[in-house]
Design a protein that fits this description.
By secondary structure, the chain is α/β, with parallel strands linked by helices. Helices cover 47% and strands 13% of the residues. The protein contains 20 helices and ten strands. It has a seven-stranded mixed beta sheet, sandwiched between helices. A three-stranded antiparallel beta sheet has the order 1-2-3. Helix 3 packs parallel to helix 7 and helix 9 crosses helix 13.
Amino acid sequence: MESVISKRRLAALTVASTLGKGIRERLFSPELVLLPQVNEVYEFELAFYESQLLSEEELIKNGAYFARVGESFTRHFLTCSGKPVKLPDYSSSRLRAFFKTNQFKTGYATHGLFPYRGKFHPQMIKGLLNTMGLHPGDSVLDPMMGSGTVLIEASQMGITSAGLDSSPFCRFMATAKLSGLSVPLRPLREALKHPDVVFKYFQKRTPAGDPSNGNGKDYYSASLFSSAEKARSSDKIPDLLKPSRIHDFLLLAYLDSAGYSLRSNRRSPAEQFTAILERYAFVVEKFQKAAAAFGIELAKADALEGDARAMPFEDESFDGIVFSPPYSFAIDYLENDLHHLNYIGTDVAALRERMVGLRGRNKKQKFENYNTDMAQVIRECSRVLRPGRICSIVVGTNNNQIGSLLGIAPEEVRGIDDLLIQFAAESRLKLVRRIERQIMGMANTMRTEFIIMLAKQN
């Protein structure tokens, strides 16, 4: 009887001892204090890799998931702290809660500017760049850059970067967001004093019939100028818009407000523009003050228009690659960007024939072309990546759509992540880690996303 009691007491002590430490205490030393919003499994995994691969000084400068190392607060915590963004008084409580909840994930630097669908979580990219062993002075490529998240994040970390995208609007958007990291504040403040001047200038150059201009809905066939650069050459351009970086940054704010006007008529286009311009200026000034205070030196970043299937880079010229292939079965990027592409004078029909995932007469043909194109993209990634280095691909699952077009059950579909791993193996890229994360807000089309980490073989 006594032995039974002793065993029970021992078991009780074991339970108490086991419960005495949480997962954070077991994974991280007491000197490492996680950010308050780290709560997903993939975040703990990336944070653990950071803690194992980075020195304390490196964690303070470039760590993604820690608020404090010993007595020192991290740059990420200090840069993100304070009011996350300036929102107009009429903003919904849901929007305010979003920016507050995602303060350390997306709401810093210029990442939160322009609501581009399917973009990365910047904090995840920072953690991933660290996990890939990239350090200041190294180089990283995003061959399908979208809104430029990798470039913006790498620039703050001292990592040289290049981005490529077949969409001229993506190139423009990424360039404008990059410029916000260092754009002169004086002319930006002048623009804030005269939002009506800026708004009217861009509005006059809006294609005829643009609904954001209040003139109807048949605007996709006409454009007043062929590019943003042509607008800058106009004799009538206001002085405060003449510097190219200021012009493009303000044009991005205008296109952002035009997008809101197309989705909602609660506020006039001019009111929307003023509110968005105030938010853009707030974000830029907050980051630049933080950069000056904490010694953040921006690395060179180039956003280019081009084809990921035939990259304009030398063999073995990058220390790392991070990208996300288009979610072509869930998002029609051209349809989403139609207004903006039209504004800068893009031939959308011709662009559709060049874009990975959109080429083809029907969905089945598009999927076949997608596989062919992605195999070529991965071959190019292997070509430009240095041996021993990592190529990371962030890709979601869309088995329901693929199963529908192939005529098979979703559970019988081979996931795109598995297809990409196969293409990678054929191109000297070996799988070293696959991390799973849940996708929020796209449950009807994609539930799970994978971070696939591939090492180039010698």
